[in-house]
Amino acid sequence: MMMVLSKLIQFISCSFFIFQFVVSFQLLDYRHRRSFTTKYIEATSRLEAYRDDLNGRNNAARNMNKIIGNVNKLSIHSPDNVLNNTINLLGRGRITMVGAGPGDPELLTIAALKVISDQDALVITDRLVSDEILALVKGEIRVAKKHPGCAEVAQEEIYRWVEEGLSLGKHVIRLKIGDPFVFGRGGEEVLRFRSIGYEPVVIPGVSATFAAPLLGGIPVTHRGVSNQVVMCTGYGRNGTNPDLIKYQKEQTVVFLMAVGRLRELSSNLCELAGYPLETPIGIIEKAGCRNEQRTLLGNLANIADLADKHKLKAPSTIVVGECVNVLLDNTIQGLVPNVNVVAGAEMAMSNTD
Questions:
Q1: Which residues are 176's β-sheet partners?
Q2: Annotated catalytic residue: which of 97, 126, 176, 286?
Q3: Is 7 a catalytic residue?
Q4: Which domains are delineated in the chain?
Q5: Which of the following is catalytic: 146, 170, 176, 286?
Q6: What is the pLDDT of residues 137-172, one digit of tens each?
Q7: What are φ and ψ of residue 98, in 5° steps?
Q8: CA 115, CA 106: separation in Å to the nearest integer?
Q9: Is 257 part of the annotated catalytic residue set?
Q10: Is 0.70 surpassed by the pTM of this model?
Q11: What does the angle CA 336 – CA 337 – CA 343 come to, to the nearest 5 degrees?
């Protein structure tokens, strides 16, 4: 009985406390209760607005990731590539890597000419691209002074210019001689651009590896004379000498960017790779530049002296092998007159009588 009475008293006490709390709340000033309700509604509205904004940002980010995330390979397409145009509409800059070919403007691809005609573009190039091609550029041009010994500094300058242009939402054109991906750091630059969130469109160029010899009257293959072609650079990473392939009579070797160490290269070919001193060698300087192109013939024994005598400079393409004498007069040891395929000039051909 006492337990029941105790429980009843506790129930009455709790009920009375609750009653007092309710009455007190009802007696609160109306303005205070209204202020509390208003603040709650405003806070709820702000929270919903923030949530909607966050969802919108997340959706935009997902859409951008779909656009960029689907690009796991080079965009080797036309300059009107959909990806880059889409990104540009979102306020980002875009990059196009363009091969300028060996030097003659008529050897530019149609796509390359279309791109460099963009009046609003920032064109970043280096000293090896010919003046004739630079004259076709409609937008701003910046030329990096890539001389031997300071190439790395110039390369970093190029990257700074690219990032500056992209930050301004510009169409940045990276214009490179020949084909950017044949000893031209094309792959390195793509990886660098990817690291800052950009995937370039790539427009291949006519490589000097094959075009320059022909412009100088030298076919790199010829049945019964040369059945294989090897491409080499004159400078390995950090200025090192590349490994040389052993001599084979029916082999043509084409060297790019090697005229600056021609004497050393000639010596290494003979001493390390087993080439005979009388092996023919041809050098085509500024291939395709109609008023400046020169072709020099010699052999491994005398070519360095001949190049010094005639002051050959970059850009030059060096061809080593018996194919050098297939079409040209093999008695010439020096400059070959009138060799210019593009201009249609008469070539100095060997006598076929």
A1: 99
A2: 126
A3: no
A4: 74-206 (3.40.1010.10), 209-336 (3.30.950.10)
A5: 146
A6: 999 999 987 666 567 888 999 999 999 999 999 999
A7: -125, 130
A8: 15
A9: yes
A10: no
A11: 115
